[in-house]
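TEACHING EXERCISE
Course module: macromolecular assemblies
Task: Read the component lines below, then compare them to the predicted structure of the full complex.
Student: A.B.
Group: 4
Components provided:
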Amino acid sequence: MSVLLAAHAAVGIVILSMTTRLQRAAWWLGTLPMIATLGYAAAHSNHVLDGHPVTEHIPWVSGLDLAIDLRLDGFGLLMLLIVSGIGVAVMAYGSQYFSPSPASSRTAGLLVLFSGSMLGLVLADHLLFLFTCWELTSITSWLLIGTRNTDPAARSGALHALLVTSIGGLALLAGVVLLGQSAGSYLLSDILQAPPGGATVAAALALIVVGVMTKSAQFPTHAWLPAAMVAPTPVSAYLHSATMVKAGIYLAARIAPAFALAAAWRPAVTLIGLITMLLGGLRAMRQNDLKLLLAMGTVSQLGFLLVLVGIGRPEATIAGVVLLTAHALFKGALFLIVGIVDHEAGTRDRRELIGFGEGWGMIKFVTLVSAASMAGLPPLIGFIAKEGAYEAFTHDGAWGAATLGGLVAGSVLTVAYSARLAATILARPPTEAASPPPPKFAFSAPAVGLSALTLAGGLVAGTFNPIIERAAIDLDPRVETAHLALWHGFNLPLALSVVTVLVGALLVVARHPVARLQAALMPRWGGEEAFAASVRGLNASARRTTGVVQNGSLPIYIAVILLTAVLLPGAIFLGDATWPGWPRLAESPLQVVVATVVIGTAIAAAAMRRRFAAVLLLGAVGYGMGLLFVVQGAPDLALTQFAIETLTIVVFMLVLRLLPDRFEPRPTGRGIWYLRLLISGTVAAAVFGFALVTGTDRDATPVAAGVIDRSLSEADGRNVVNVVLVDFRGLDTLGEISVLVIAGLGIVALARIGRRGRIGAVTQRPGSDGEADTTVDEADQAVEPARTGGGDAPREDS
Amino acid sequence: MRRSLIMDTVTRLVFHSALVLSIYLLFAGHNQPGGGFVGGLVAGAAFTLVYVAGGIDDVRSMSRLRPWTVLGGGLVLATATTVVPLLLGNAVLESGHAGFDVPGLGHVEVSSTLVFDAGVYGIVVGLVLMAFEAFGEEPIEVDGPGGPEGS
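Instructor-supplied answer key:
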């Protein structure tokens, strides 16, 4: 299995690195790993369907107990078939949809990488590996939505999707870690066998639900999915209908049977799913852009799926698995059709499309089959899924009845928007002269293939029975058997189906009054606006916070830093410590001499009016400290201190060249002066106090002794300071040097902006994501006071 | 800028010795006073000498490595030393060491933390060079009383 994942990664990278040379071959090359995956699935299907999952374990970061654990069970097999099967169809379709160009090869390469990530997601047994793949799908999705990266709409759509899904991803990570820690294992198969309980698990589940919601476009985070429709149609067909948006459903399906009764999982998931289903359906009925109609339909169906798989009951799980399959087939095909229409007719707006004439027969048939399956009409797989869903909720008391009512209402809407879509392509009278040119066979073949499966899934449902049954059993061991069939006799689900279709048809007949009613009732605010408003609000509040916190006055910065440093530990210090009495103040006359020099130069430095002199005196203080270290017998510290002082003075000199020669006498009142003196005095007293107390009032054993003992034996070094830095506390050092690097880069960047002035800093583009462009401007303003207005020279930390 | 013969000569005399000293400090650090940080500072001081003698152009012409390359390279080295033990199944930053008999030098003990220290060394040197890059170019004349005289 890992070989398959590696093959996806390798082929994807090869295509991406050879975009100019491969042209159309990129698409055929890209299908290879997917076909290999299908071959692998075929070879192992008997084994898996007999109830023996294939597992694989590869140590990854063994020091952190991270591993790539893969597990192919029945549900994994089904997902794998969907991911790779539809992947092959989309790649074949893409080779016809795009004219050969480096950009289209890039899309092909990214699709392969996405496919590999998605494959990893459905095969992962280790939760952290699952999370990694989850994020990889978010990132590749972002790149794919933004394919036309010169288009502002594409960029903002991609950013929207990335922000929402990665916020969800963070929540998922937190949830997964909580779940893994409380279960004592990160293996999904272990956790589901012995599900842990308690408050931690409830929190974990809530976080996981957030991840599921964002990924699977559930209300109220659904708006990224329609916004993502700026992606090329093959991408939308693959990512945003058949596979990636199913990742949330996949995860919910995995954990629901074990955790459905924990906390508020069941009511929460049901409610979210139902709202999403109804809202998506209502929105879909109003779309004129066929692709947006499908996107809203997808939102609706994802809500439906979440209700089915999230409820964690055997019958609902079976229905969910069937619907998952049915949805991938019909929605994939419909997206491909809309792409063909768009490609040939130049528009996908239903108001501009006119009849399709000669040569479009096959497309019309595919549309009919797929839309009917979406609407849940017999004899198609969509009908079986919907019947199963109705059946699952008929014997379930008041809650079941309420849920059932919601599902029926949602399905009525589905019938209505399916008809709206189908009518656009089927019902317009063909006008030979104006009919768009029919697509080539190779272009329509993938859609035909998918709809053939839709048809087969209904007519010969029995052949799909083993895999659906095994998938459901592997999700929920309480499932005994699944019977997929079109005819279950006269029963309540059948009656509800009839009602659904009739009411749906009524909505179609009365579409004009319904549309007027919807237009009147529809809130003006949709998810898209809510998202835009929250991003704007975030930016505005960030700007306001920055304005208050970063006001550009160095004296205030220093005062805040110093007071925090003194007051926080100082409070504890005053509460806890006892006065230890004066220690021996000096051990040798030399110390007294050096200390006197240090104190004298320090006072002189503070009194200086010329910056240059002040810096030199500060340097003298530093060298004096170095001398003290020498006297005390710490050559290591002294060496470092001398080197640092030398470099600090040089850096000061560099900066001083840009500053006025003298500190300007500033018109500050006496009050300010006393305040500064007070702060300085407090800091000095506090530091002195700390030094005294930490030196003498010790009640824990110093770590030093242990460190010195272990230094040679464990780290094989005799220089204890160095051993501590690079070995015992090496991770701290790594953190510190990372900060140093970032600070260094920041200083160079700021200095260069300052030197270049404000030329070209303001480039606000109207109507785009202009917020980000102001940051250069703001950074510039923040630098300004440091260069000209500040009273004190900024001291370099090096 | 005007060059000073004394500075140039001193720089030529001291620069290489200072670099050798800095590398000695880096290698000796595990057992004697020294280490990557001090070593880097000493090397930084050597570059400072070059800067004082010949300005930013002299520093730039010494090597084709740019400051950010040195800086980033150091971080990569240090991070790699941190992560590699993890991949080998040990704890973060776990160190290993080995002794060799090198002809001419006698018995030499080498610890894997030396690589980490070399990363620190690179970062410190890179940071000093970055400071020159940021503030070291000839300043635009500042208006106001008393321009810089000291330099």
